[in-house]
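Journal club prep — side note

Before the paper discussion, L.F. wants everyone to see what a predicted structure for a comparable chain looks like in token form. Sequence:
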Amino acid sequence: MPARNNTTAVGEPAEAGGTTADRNAGENGGTSTDSTVAEAGGTTAARKPHDSGETTPGRKPDVIAGTSADGEAAQTDGKSGSTDERTGDDKATETGKTTDGTVADTDKTATDGKPGGTDETSTDGEATADPWAAFGPAPEPVPGRVRRVGRAVGRSLVHEWTLAALGSLALAVLMTWPTLRYPRYTLPQDTWDPSLQSWQMAWSGHILLTNPAQLWQSNSFFPEAWSFAFSDTLLGYAPAGMIGTGPEAAVLRYNIMFVLAHALATFGAYALARQLGSARMGAAVAGVGYAYAPWLLAQAGHLHVLSNGGIPLALAMLARGHGWSLRHGYRPERRHDGWVYAGWLVAAWQLSLGFGIGLPFAYFLGAAVLVAAVTWYVRRWFGGVRRPFGVRLFIADLVGGALFAGVGLLMAIPYFRVTELHPNAERSVGDIALFSPPASGFVTAPAESRIWGGLHEGARAALPWHPEMTLLPGFVLYALAAGGLFFSVWRLRHRLLLLAGVLGTMVLAMGTRFFGGTWTYVPLFEHLPGWNGLRTPGRLMLWVTLLLCLLAAGAVTALTDRVHDLAAQRIPSWPGPWLRLASVLPLLLVTAEGLNTTPHPVAPAQPEAMRVVDGPMLVLPSNQGLDQHVMLWSTTHFQDVVNGGSGFTPRQLDDVRRVTQTFPDQVSVDYLRTLGVRNVVLLRDQIAGTPWEMSVDTPVDSLGITREEIGSAVVYRLWPGDSSSGPQPTPSGQPTDLPTSLPTGLPTSLPSGLPTDLPSGLPSGLPTSLPSGLPSGLPTSLPTQAAGALGSTEAAGALGSAGGR
């Protein structure tokens, strides 16, 4: 056995991060000189003695932080071949010093005291190969570029956020079925508002590709200005509107966005709950409860209401960028300005979908920023709490907030112009009262709910306007949120704040039903800019639902944590079937409450005339529902149409509908010419029970217009002959050469080809004389019994009616 070296290297004592198998000679009962204990990152294996106490000439001593009295060398971290980049006193403190003051190379000495790990060193300084190396495992081959890319793609596919996105999309397809069964031919809920919103997406995509400057001067409501701002625009979906043309493409686009809106709402709420500190199961309950709350089934025909996923997603991104969560508070090390930019961008996109949902979101963001800033400075200057924020994060908030405010301002300008031009577009407190739900609406489900729809039929009958007053978010969600007040991973003060938010938004959602709204909704209506444009306070139920989902996520997270604790006590340590069912049951119940019976009627077929007749044109009959179909039909060529449907009816459109009740007659023809209308399309399949049912086949030669049958429609051309004879619309859709006055009389000559004799059996009461200049051969007097049968006013009316037909 080789002699032991009883001399240790001189070094400084260092702390041991783990346990050393063999301590220095002092600990083993032997003697040592200035022995040291090396700092170890973990447990150090038993050390082997040196064959010689001398070092090889030209090499550093084979010591690690010092050598014990019996010649054993300490190991720093149990690994060989690594490189220690630290220098100076810190390294000397951790590793010790050799006898000549040189810092030992700690990472190049293996557990057996030999440098390099597996290589042995001879006495003459030459390294020899380890004969046992051939029996070791072969090194893992370095993967090529293709394999590295494949591994990266595989890791991304099984990432939590990828699975969450795919799961949200699959669930949306199932929960909205049969939306995608016949996506080119059917529409969810009804064919009125979905037709309008299909046109909105198509128009925004079309005009941004052809003439972006005329975005707000749409082809509907001709010749009104700023007509695209007559309702929420869904402008954020304009990229989708750039693909495809015609009504079928518009319907397909609408159905796809309808499904994607549900998927985004699920994913956004899931992301927000996860960022705030919820477990996966709790976040899943929040996502499903937010996207498929029963009250939203009554809004299936309002895509601008269902498109709310940007709200929780933007909040999740902003919270992540600022390193804040509800469960862990502010963590400066987790700040990331990239997420802040992304959050503000998503918030601006959500605002571009419409102010009906976006305006309360904008005010919430403004209030949140104000409260956060005040809290920050109060704690900093008065509480002595100095937390880092960072210039980059401040710049990100400044730029992102400016972007959000800029988008809101640019979108608000057209709406302010509309209120100036159309005072009747503004809402009144009386209008709000018509749509304010009572407290019973919070526990009443819409008819489209598969679980509760039939059971709540009587309760719905008691509501004045049940489509906007059935506001049940789900009884399961109520129960989970109530449990979250007592059993949750959120702190008590956070639970109380969430409860206060739920109650406060419920009061606002009641509009004027809560003590007249004197101290709740009415002050917001009268003083907050833009709030008077919101006519349905019940849609604030969106915020009630989101806050309830966060309370429920805290309760479900606490439940799943308890399940894991119980499972850890089992052998083997995984949950049994009952524990698994207990953790999944809340998600199943919330999903079941979201099942629906939403109808999917067939979209109205486009008349052939809408594909071949130019504008400006008027389609008759004209009313709110049918005009929305006309807007959809116009997506083939986007010709100007007088028709239009929105949240309010312009006075001019009211006048058009009133005057054209007697079309075709001289008064209506002349009035339409003053507006610049060139063609009128009368739909035969829509005129039953209308005045046009009797006048559709009346000759129109005396009116200076022509009549033509195209498919199932009758087309009247108000400017027959050369198409240039009538006023030509400008690129913005407005005529430039409108007549300044109405005609003063009827045509001075009758067209040729009139019959040479009149039919017998003329009715009584005709005028006693005829105008001069008629063709020869006509009778010059009427029967005597006809004289005086009618008064002058009634006779004039009879003549006007006869001329009109």
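L.F.'s comment for the group: The first helix runs from residue 89 to 95. Keep this in mind when we get to the figures.
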